[in-house]
Design goal:
Strand content: under 5%
Largest sheet: none
Number of strands: 0
Distance between the termini: 45 Å
């Protein structure tokens, strides 16, 4: 049992609200300093630096920068207008726009917390002004924000690809169907709730075909960015890492020369936000890699895999057990960090059971993102509640119907592999 002490320490540190990266490093170092004296400390220190000596990791700062460039370039406003022209006339129109905007933005920002924060500041004030309850608006914003990381180029798609050794291209393509399913499920539930409560649409009548086409033309440069990235990788024009740099360039060109809202003076702020975002993500990855080194030495992933296989050799039952574990962990640990910790633990059992790693990756990412809006510690829940000054109890009452819709999508993706792998099987 001694070998499991660092895991116990890790969860104690989590419960004490110690930052994820520090918790991982402290738990790992407790093993190397006190429980295993055979590994030189210098070798452990080398692991800190070698953890980030990876060319694919360069994609992370590029895609973080994409989200920052997008916020200054006018892309979000053009997508908002386009979303409003499509669904703004429906019952609960602004809430529907909230979901549609997250779906459009996902292909560009790929960050749930960034999407939740942006919509809390831009869209929710308009929703409350038009009679939507603030807690309901917060719940819709948090729930719809989890769509963003599932659509390429979501950072979690890249990180999972690196952890599991699967094609980034396949993971990118696999993200579209689950994201659209989540968007549709939320739109249906929002329509039902809005009709019961009498929430009005954002526009009195549907936009004309000409008006929709005009908004579509204005939003086209932004909408084409993710498709350009996917096609470029599909035809071998650039690698996933280079795709990040291409995405930054495309967003900058759109902002500078098409929307003309991006200014040279914005770039210091963009660089600052990119460095801060990259630093926090990479620091967590370093901590996770060192913690993973300890687990590998103690063969903990293999032991857990063996335990899961002994419980069941049924693929669907194994995925169901993993889903329960992920949902619980996702409530307490930030999504990216949870994925980094759990993927190496669970992957051997998944591969042994004959589960496709891309299918597993989609289930993991959707599951952990749902955890991000689930009480008691969902990160997107805290983001919207802190910005909008909404009480957690009020948020929890409003978010449960939306969570049920998202969980229904998760179950479909879990039990029907062909749904999750439809596009990868079709296009690769």
């Amino acid at each position: 049992m001694e070998s499991y002490i660092p895991i116990f320490i890790l969860f104690v540190l989590f419960l004490l609200n110690i930052p994820i990266a520090f918790s991982l490093i402290a738990a790992a170092m407790s093993y190397f300093l006190f429980l295993n004296n055979t590994i030189p400390v210098t070798l452990v220190m080398q692991k800190f630096t070698s953890s980030v000596e990876s060319f694919p990791l360069l994609a992370i700062p590029f895609f973080i920068m994409v989200g920052s460039v997008m916020n200054y370039s006018g892309i979000s406003r053009s997508l908002l207008s386009f979303a409003d022209s499509i669904v703004g006339h429906k019952t609960g129109g602004l809430a529907q726009v909230n979901v549609a905007l997250s779906t459009f933005m996902g292909g560009i920002s790929g960050s749930a917390n960034a999407d939740a924060a942006m919509q809390s500041k831009i869209l929710v004030p308009e929703m409350t002004q038009r009679g939507y309850g603030k807690a309901f608006s917060a719940a819709v914003t948090a729930a719809s924000s989890i769509i963003s990381p599932v659509i390429p180029p979501g950072i979690n798609l890249i990180i999972f690809s690196l952890l599991a050794g699967v094609s980034v291209h396949k993971m990118f393509i696999a993200g579209y169907v689950p994201a659209l399913m989540m968007a549709v499920s939320l739109i249906i539930v929002i329509a039902i709730i809005s009709k019961r409560r009498g929430y009005k649409p954002s526009r009195e009548k549907p936009a004309s075909a000409g008006e929709r086409f005009q908004h579509f033309l204005k939003a086209t440069p932004a909408l084409l960015i993710p498709f350009g990235i996917i096609l470029g990788m599909r035809f071998g024009l650039f690698t996933p890492t280079e795709a990040g740099a291409i995405a930054v360039l495309l967003c900058a060109v759109v902002g500078l020369f098409i929307y003309k809202e991006l200014k040279i003076t914005h770039f210091p702020a963009i660089l600052k936000e990119t460095i801060q975002g990259t630093g926090s993500v990479i620091f967590i990855i370093i901590g996770a890699m060192v913690f993973g080194y300890y687990m590998t030495l103690e063969q903990i992933p293999q032991n857990i895999a063996s335990a899961l296989i002994e419980l069941t050799d049924n693929k669907l039952l194994l995925l169901l057990l993993i889903n329960v574990l992920l949902l619980v962990v996702g409530m307490f640990i930030e999504g990216g960090a949870a994925m980094i910790i759990l993927t190496p633990l669970l992957l051997p059992a998944v591969l042994n059971a004959g589960i496709d790693p891309v299918h597993f990756g989609i289930v993991v990412i959707v599951n952990i993102m749902i955890g991000g809006v689930t009480p008691p510690f969902g990160s997107m829940m805290f983001t919207v509640c802190s910005i909008l000054k909404v009480r957690l109890t009020d948020f929890m009452k409003e978010v449960y119907p939306l969570l049920l819709a998202l969980l229904a999508v998760l179950m479909i993706l879990t039990f029907f592999e062909d749904v999750a792998l439809f596009l990868p099987n079709l296009l690769t």
